[in-house]
């Protein structure tokens, strides 16, 4: 009887494994992609749009006139948006021959970049985020919303292309007064501060990436990983200076320089999961117990 039970149990487990394996087809191993980005909203320090000039309009987003699905659920209505710019400029130059400050996302290609990558392969470069941080007179940028949509084209196997749900990057910005002491240590007082909040994309503090999980029906779940060089968890002082809670994510920029942050992209076959605080506590307790046992052995 016991052997029959073991055999039956093995058959059930094998059947479950086979069912799980057959739930999805062979994974997608190669992708073509096009990412389109542009600013759909922005405000200056006077809570107006008058002090900001947009340029380098993204063709796809500027041509949208309907609803685009969002990673957070629901959709965003483009019917009244008009031009969606990949570069914002502001301020009156404060030095002779100086230029305006600006923030751009792939402005050289109007916020559109295409490429090819492999699942679980190396990340590929996409566009650059550039902040021309020049001395200016106010008004300056205060906040902006960057819209990003990712079109994916499975190459191996060859499948129909699709749009992943779009992401919206909420950007909060502080143009510092360059008066010592600086909130953020900097070679040329004082660094300006950007805070980024991406609804629907988890931030991994280990590899500094934004992560977006998506599904291709019958081919499983995948994770799009976006690395913006220089983005990290900011100091509490920097978060407070911008007026947001501690633990904020972002970057800072050096005064009187064109600050460039390269962006790269990869796809894995492992959906991103953010550890719960309770789980992190259990892991910490387990490591402490292990260390104690080694110490007392």
TrEMBL record:
What residue stretch is flagged as signal peptide?
Answer: 1-25
Keywords attached to this Swiss-Prot or TrEMBL record, sorted alphabetically, are: Signal
Q: What's the protein name?
A: PEP-CTERM protein-sorting domain-containing protein
Question: What is the organism field in this record?
Answer: Niveibacterium umoris
What is the taxonomic lineage of the source species? Bacteria, Pseudomonadati, Pseudomonadota, Betaproteobacteria, Rhodocyclales
């Amino acid at each position: 009887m016991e052997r029959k039970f073991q055999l039956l149990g093995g058959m059930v487990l094998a059947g479950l494994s086979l069912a799980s394996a057959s739930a999805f087809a062979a994974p997608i191993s190669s992708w073509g992609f096009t990412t389109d980005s542009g600013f759909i909203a922005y405000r200056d320090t006077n809570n107006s749009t008058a002090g900001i000039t947009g340029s380098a309009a993204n063709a796809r987003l500027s041509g949208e006139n309907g609803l685009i699905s969002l990673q957070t659920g629901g959709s965003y209505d483009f019917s009244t948006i008009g031009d969606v710019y990949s570069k914002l400029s502001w301020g009156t130059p404060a030095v002779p021959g100086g230029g305006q400050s600006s923030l751009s996302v792939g402005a050289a290609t109007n916020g559109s970049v295409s490429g090819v990558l492999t699942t679980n392969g190396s990340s590929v470069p996409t566009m650059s985020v550039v902040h021309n941080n020049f001395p200016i007179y106010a008004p300056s940028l205060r906040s902006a919303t960057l819209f990003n949509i990712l079109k994916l084209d499975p190459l191996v196997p060859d499948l129909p292309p699709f749009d992943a749900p779009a992401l919206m990057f909420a950007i909060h910005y502080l143009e510092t007064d360059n008066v010592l002491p600086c909130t953020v240590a900097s070679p040329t007082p004082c660094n300006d501060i950007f805070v980024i909040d991406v609804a629907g994309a988890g931030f991994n503090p280990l590899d500094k990436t934004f992560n977006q999980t998506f599904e291709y029906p019958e081919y499983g779940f995948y994770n799009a990983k976006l690395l913006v060089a220089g983005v990290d968890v900011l100091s509490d002082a920097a978060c407070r200076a911008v007026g947001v809670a501690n633990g904020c994510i972002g970057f800072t920029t050096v005064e009187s320089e064109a600050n460039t942050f390269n962006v790269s992209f990869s796809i894995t076959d492992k959906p991103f999961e953010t550890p719960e605080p309770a789980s992190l506590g259990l892991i910490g307790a387990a490591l402490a117990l292990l260390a104690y046992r080694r110490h007392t052995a």
